[in-house]
Amino acid sequence: MEAAKNHFFSDMGVMLGRSMRHITRSMDTIITVTIMPIAFMLLFVYVFGGAIQTGTDNYVNYLLPGILLIAIASGISYTAFRLFTDVQRGIFERFHTMPISRSTLLWGHVLTSLLSNAMSVAVIILVALVMGFRSPAGILPWLAVAGILFLFTLALTWVAAIAGLSAKSVDGASAFSYPIIFLPFISSAFVPTESMPPVVRAFADNQPVTSIVEAIRSLLSGQPVGNEIWAALAWCVGITLVAYFFAMRVYKKRV
To answer: Is pTM beyond 0.90 here?
Structure first.
């Protein structure tokens, strides 16, 4: 049993190293993922920020949680693309002829998504600090924020795995991320939901991004989190479990 575990983790390390080399050799992937969210942050803070009433004097503090979620949603489209490319090139079939744990092929892409998105999030936070973002939160709230972002990335990565394994074209593999990127715009990420029409507000208040944004915003501002953090965790864990189940089913059928 111990040998099997060691074999699994060593194989997963090899697959992770392979995927990460693709990232490091093509840094334009991370650059592309960070440019759009940073552009949104610059646009909303310096162009629209003065006209948006959020009840805070520092709009970048209000805006940052939503920008981080947009960055993650943009980043996971590349996970779907890399998975689709491996399937189309027969990479999985080649590895399956070798004595390695089959699930490590998929986990290598998942872990790569977590690491690459963490890099993008770190870059965006640094830019936000330059723009005036400040947080009174201590180490524990920051760790809680990191945990929520980790779970959100993991959830969307398994959704990306479904798209990457089942898509018929490159465009189909990455197109699924567009609605996810759009979700923060119909949430409390940019403006309070109280300013929205009733129907739009009902959707915004009951979709996952609003709960996640509110939980992160409260943690970073040092305010009581309330029930938002439990709603955020429930959304992230629920999406992860459902997406993982279907991703593994598609993986077994496809390869």
So the answer is: no
